[in-house]
Amino acid sequence: MSEKMTRTMHDSGPGPLAGEVALVTGGSRGIGRAIALRLAALGAAVAVSGRDAAALQASEAALRAAGVPAFSCLADVTRAADTERLAAASQAALGPIGILVNNAGVGLFGPAHERSEEEWDRVLDTNLKGVFLVSRAVVPAMIARRKGHIVNISSLAGKNTFANGGLYCASKWGLQGLSGCMAEDLREYGIRVSTVCPGSVATEFSPWTGRDLSKLLQAEDVAHVVEMLVTQGPRSFVSEVQMRPLHKP
Predict the structure, then answer these.
(1) Which strands make up the sheet holding 148-153, listed edge to edge?
(2) How does 94-121 read in b/e, with b if 16+ C-beta sit within 10 Å?
(3) Sign, CA torsion 23/40/62/202
(4) Does 207 fall in a domain?
(5) Residue 248 maps to a domain
(6) What does the pLDDT look like over 100-138, one tens digit per residue?
(7) 20: DSSP letter
(8) What pLDDT, in 10s, does the model give residues 144-193?
(9) Which residue range forms the structural domain that includes residue 193?
(10) Residue 27 lies in a domain
(11) What's the total number of domains in the chain?
(12) Is pTM, for the whole model, over 0.85?
């Protein structure tokens, strides 16, 4: 499918991202779903992945209700075969991927010396290896087109340490390093790599017992930052955005 044909197919309405194709991992709920819906509102065709079939179907239906082409795919980002299939199927359904949002993530908390090897592998494989695998599957087509946006959803835990955060912080500090190197490797091809580092976000990701959820960041706040990143002017890129609630919860 030619880029011209793809653009014509996806011009479903006005918007700065009309004609673009986005892939959002972990797009069936929470931050990922909010980002996917925001990109759809901006005119992009959107593919989402996850491991919950029912939640994925609901997200795809919501995207189609927004008036854009949509596609959902069951995929485990920790498995190379799944990520390769995800990239190929998304591009076959919607066209060349111009925006990749690596959002899939997990969190397991507690003293690192009390966590198991299995728990370490789960967190590091999802939060860090998953970004590597999905990006590796998508980047070659971006290089061929000499343009693209990659937004990695990191965390302030990738900038700061805290008690009980050993596994999670390790994954997000690693993601910060990987993202910075990717940005240097890919900028000459017109591909911009950015990280978004939110603080506490009110989603089902972590229980915030006893805290005022209205004072936490919301998924839509993160989606707004992603919108800013993928609609910036052509001569620059924002390498990192740190996000904090205005009022401490």
Answers:
(1) 70-74, 45-50, 21-25, 99-102, 148-153, 191-198, 240-243
(2) bbbbbbbbbbbbbbbbeeeeebeeeebe
(3) positive
(4) yes
(5) no
(6) 999 999 999 999 999 999 999 999 999 999 999 999 999
(7) -
(8) 999 999 999 999 999 999 999 999 999 999 999 999 999 999 999 999 99
(9) 3-243
(10) yes
(11) 1
(12) yes
